[in-house]
Amino acid sequence: MDRHKTAPTATAALGRTLLGAALLGAYRKEEEQIQIQFKGDGPLGSILAVADTKGQVKGRVGNPAADPPLRPDGKLNVGAAVGQGQLCVTRTHPGQPRPYTGIVNIVSGEVAEDLATYLAESEQTNSALALGVCIGRDLRVKSAGGYLVQVLPFCSDETLDQLEQNLTGMPSMTQLLNQGLSPQEITDKILAGLGSGGSSGDTIIPRYGPCEAEALKGRMLRAVASLGAAEVKSILEEQGQVEVTCELCNEQFQFSEAEVMQYV
User: Which residues of the chain are under the pLDDT cut of 50?
Assistant: First the structure.
């Protein structure tokens, strides 16, 4: 919200997408990266989120000011903000010759249902996915969270029945967050009667990024170099330096002629 100056509905939409990307990216092959992009016709425009296997995630929305009227039940209308269109999910890994991209139609625009549809249709994985972003009366984020449950091929019918029963009776993710439940307590509710096994200690702490200068500077310089020597020299002659803004981190970098020209 502070980084991209998003309105409440845009904050909820971006927050859910960031959470979804973090969940879909966690515990995958090392160095794999996932990109999620909603291309809807609503006032929000597009939503983009990128995550890796270490819990690092960042993103942006096309129109940070998008904030349509509330739904009849008084909740933020994320679905109307996103609109209809397509959801594109791309997985990349240095060891794979080309990225894998799956495209599905946006079902509701509420993000979680759309990502679950993608997992079922493109990755043939039956999943239960819930995402929630709680925004307070001061229009700031109070809490955010989500869970992803995937059914493996060897799952027994008894286990599946119990899991479906648990999920059917689950409150919404926003309600769970407002109740102040910890991740372990939410896990225990999802796996009631099955045994959650307690905390394994294998925990990924999500964070926004990477946005550190060391992580971004090289990429920004290569992006400037891709403009070509003539264009770069023209900018330097006019401005004396090249200024670049990372659209995901909203961080600005200024490069001198000496820094830029060694990449051109």
Answer: none
